[in-house]
Each structure stands twice: as structure tokens, then as C-alpha cells.
Amino acid sequence: MKHTTEMMISAEEIDQKLDILAEQINAHYAQSDRLLMVGLLKGSVVFMADLCRRIKGHVEIDFMSVSSYGTGMTSTRDVKILKDVQSEIQGRDVLIVEDLIDSGNTLNKVREMLLIREPKSLALCTLLDKPERREVEVPVDFVGFTIPDEFIVGYGIDYAEQYRNLPYIAKVIPL
Ligand code: PRP
Ligand code: MN
Ligand code: MG
């Protein structure tokens, strides 16, 4: 598709938002030891890198890779684990770190998969939320930006694997 991109959220705005999110997360986990931040590959990598450096205390990071397949008849998707976390989840405070919640299918399934392993607590953090696109409800604890249903890229988010390296978030505009 022929397209162009247009900056929507600047690197400075992202930076300021991360300070706010980190403050909330640090306050929430002030009494916690060994917080485990779990990022979903690949989109969350850039956000995780910037966020985890603002979190205080003993923090560990880990990653999961999942893929979702449409089942055809319904909009609900089957989510398969391609790469699991290496960390023990049981008894831990776990914070899932995502770049974007769209339909909610990915996070909903990942949440269920991790809850089975009996974490001490499980919370969700997303940089971007597109509530208009939601198909399944997911409880989100920390949200950076709530955005309209726009096609976006950058800061880890791709269009056909491109643009993850953009330091800001941009709209994709078809030409
Ligand atoms: C994107 C995004 C979220 C997910 C959100 O990931 O990074 O993980 O889709 O969509 P949902 O709420 O409708 O499930 P994608 O599957 O494109 O993989 P990627 O992170 O490797 O780009
Ligand atoms: Mn993703
Ligand atoms: Mg993607």
C-alpha cells in the first residue's frame, strides 16, 4: 500500500508520559519485591526498554511471544505461545507490558495463560489504548495514551515489520 506517515505523538510527549506511568507503577509496587515485567514481543520492546529503566527496586524483565489466529467464523482468536517466559510466575508480582491494546484478544489470552500459574498479582500496562476497537474486555491498570482508531506505527509498533525504530508515534496515511 502506498502511504506516508505523519507524526502523532512526539518523542518528548512519550518521554513525559513514561515519567508519569513510572511514578504510578513505582507507587503501586512500593512494597513489592522482585517485580517481574513481562513484555510481549515484538511491539513492546522499545516501551519496555524505556519504562523498566524508570522502575525502582528489584525488577526483572522477561518476554513472551504469542501469535493470534482468526478462527474464521467468529472474531475471537486463538492465541498460541511461540516463546514462553523463562521466569517462574507463581507467587510473583507480574506486570504485563504492552505497546498497544486493539481488539484486546492478545492481552486477554495472555492474562488467562499467566493467571493459571498463580502469580501473587497480575497487572497490565499499555502505552496506547484504542478502546473503540475492543472486542473483548481486558482490565488495564496503567494506560499511557488513549487514542482514536487510527493506523499507527513507531516506537516499537510496525506496519509490515517496518517503522518499529521510529522514535515517535506516527499515523499511517494511505496515498
Ligand atoms: C500488535 C500489538 C499488540 C497487539 C494488539 O502486535 O503490538 O501486541 O497487536 O492487538 P489486539 O489487542 O487486537 O490483540 P502484533 O500481533 O502485530 O505483533 P508484534 O508486536 O510483533 O508487532
Ligand atoms: Mn504486539
Ligand atoms: Mg505487529
From TrEMBL:
<keyword id="KW-0660">Purine salvage</keyword>
<dbReference type="InterPro" id="IPR005904">
    <property type="entry name" value="Hxn_phspho_trans"/>
</dbReference>
<keyword id="KW-0460">Magnesium</keyword>
<dbReference type="Pfam" id="PF00156">
    <property type="entry name" value="Pribosyltran"/>
</dbReference>
<comment type="similarity">
    <text>Belongs to the purine/pyrimidine phosphoribosyltransferase family.</text>
</comment>
<comment type="pathway">
    <text>Purine metabolism; IMP biosynthesis via salvage pathway; IMP from hypoxanthine: step 1/1.</text>
</comment>
<keyword id="KW-0547">Nucleotide-binding</keyword>
<dbReference type="InterPro" id="IPR029057">
    <property type="entry name" value="PRTase-like"/>
</dbReference>
<keyword id="KW-0963">Cytoplasm</keyword>
<dbReference type="GO" id="GO:0016757">
    <property type="term" value="F:glycosyltransferase activity"/>
</dbReference>
<keyword id="KW-0328">Glycosyltransferase</keyword>
<comment type="function">
    <text>Purine salvage pathway enzyme which catalyzes the transfer of the ribosyl-5-phosphate group from 5-phospho-alpha-D-ribose 1-diphosphate (PRPP) to the N9 position of hypoxanthine to yield IMP (inosine 5'-monophosphate). To a lesser extent, can also act on guanine leading to GMP, but shows a highly less efficient activity with xanthine.</text>
</comment>
<feature type="domain" description="Phosphoribosyltransferase">
    <location>
        <begin position="12"/>
        <end position="159"/>
    </location>
</feature>
<keyword id="KW-0808">Transferase</keyword>
<dbReference type="InterPro" id="IPR000836">
    <property type="entry name" value="PRTase_dom"/>
</dbReference>
<dbReference type="InterPro" id="IPR050408">
    <property type="entry name" value="HGPRT"/>
</dbReference>
<keyword id="KW-0479">Metal-binding</keyword>
<protein>
    <recommendedName>
        <fullName>Hypoxanthine phosphoribosyltransferase</fullName>
        <ecNumber>2.4.2.8</ecNumber>
    </recommendedName>
</protein>
